[in-house]
Recover the amino acids of this structure.
């Protein structure tokens, strides 16, 4: 049994938005999963094969990007870039959710083709971890001609998501709503595009269309990239129970205004955070951290709450066995601190001040995959591997 101990934790963010901060200074990991969380004096360190001294800094669950458009492998034809998923790990992203492999050159637009693509991507990413990142790939794009048996087969072969409705030829609630029911019947989570058109072939979607279609997740409530009118945003916040996604590649003003309404409505547990990249906005290794910082700096959202939106909230929606720091969960962890030169005294106060924190270490399944991020500014205090096993 492999045992890894993280000690001298200054602040521990749980990932559970109902209790975002834990009183603990140590985490014991056994065989890639969190075994114990508590005080070092109770856990001890003699039996640990590896010991990481967090130097009084902040530990959070690995971030989950709730909205990505991968294709196959760690390459994006949209921006002709290799290694964008691995680069995201250096931004603290340890899990990625596909919203549809829509950027595949020559993407099939018939029922059998989109089903085959979703199955291929799901199976491919189930065995491929770029930089260690866990990618939930294979999001079925809704095209005309899909039947219930197609959803049944796709689900049986490992497809767990319907990509954001509006990217394929099925756009109207009349066409989409029956397919949504089939998808949910066979255990899939359903995303839906909102706001203005994002790519050729996509559609403009408002609150009425969303409510008539009845998805699980309202994609980019702040626009992808163009936002709905605020009246539609407020309607979805106050009159539905859907998961509400805020993304980097959207309208910044609407992100802040939506977060204010969400706080007023007591709906923070419904919020998840994504990049919505690769896109025309680019490839965004620090996109999730930037949204966390935006919300904590400019909206009535505490930094630890924003982190929970990007970790435990998303993991709960998609049924991931990670995203929170508690026994039994996969040990995907990020160690961070205030960046050098920040007015913040630690990661959380730096985030509140609008600064991107410095990441000093990333672990996936208890294994160190990043020692000092190449993408964030340097952390003021660096975590150290003091016992290497």
């Amino acid at each position: 049994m492999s045992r890894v101990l993280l000690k001298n934790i200054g602040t521990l963010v749980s990932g559970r938005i109902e209790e975002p901060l834990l009183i603990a200074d140590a985490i014991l990991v056994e065989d890639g999963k969190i075994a114990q969380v508590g005080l070092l004096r109770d856990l001890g360190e003699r039996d640990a094969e590896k010991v990481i001294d967090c130097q009084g800094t902040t530990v959070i669950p690995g971030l989950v990007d709730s909205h990505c458009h991968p294709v196959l492998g760690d390459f994006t034809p949209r921006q002709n870039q290799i290694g964008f998923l691995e680069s995201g790990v250096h931004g603290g992203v340890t899990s990625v959710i596909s919203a549809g492999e829509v950027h595949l050159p020559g993407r099939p637009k018939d029922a059998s083709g989109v089903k085959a693509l979703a199955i291929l991507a799901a199976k491919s990413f189930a065995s491929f971890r770029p930089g260690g990142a866990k990618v939930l790939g294979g999001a079925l794009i809704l095209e005309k001609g899909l039947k219930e048996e197609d959803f049944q087969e796709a689900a049986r072969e490992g497809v767990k998501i319907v990509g954001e409705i509006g990217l394929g030829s099925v756009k109207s609630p009349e066409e989409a709503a029956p397919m949504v029911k089939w998808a949910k019947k066979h255990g899939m989570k359903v995303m839906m595009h909102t706001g203005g058109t994002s790519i050729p072939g996509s559609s403009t979607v408002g609150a009425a269309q969303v409510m008539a279609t009845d998805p699980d997740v309202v994609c980019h409530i702040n626009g992808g990239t163009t936002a709905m009118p605020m009246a539609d945003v407020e309607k979805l916040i106050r009159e539905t129970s859907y998961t509400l996604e805020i993304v980097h590649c959207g309208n910044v003003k609407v992100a802040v205004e939506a977060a204010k309404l969400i706080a007023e409505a007591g709906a923070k547990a419904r919020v998840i955070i994504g990049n919505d990249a690769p896109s025309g906005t680019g490839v965004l290794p620090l996109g999730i951290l930037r949204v966390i910082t935006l919300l904590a700096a400019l909206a009535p959202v505490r930094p630890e709450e924003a982190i929970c939106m990007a970790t435990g909230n998303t993991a709960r929606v998609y049924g991931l066995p990670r995203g929170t720091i508690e026994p039994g969960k996969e040990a995907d962890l990020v160690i961070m601190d205030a960046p050098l030169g920040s007015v913040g005294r630690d990661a959380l106060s730096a985030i509140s001040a609008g600064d991107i924190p410095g990441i000093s270490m990333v672990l996936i399944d208890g294994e160190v995959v990043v020692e000092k991020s190449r993408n964030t500014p340097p952390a003021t205090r660096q975590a150290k591997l003091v016992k290497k096993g």
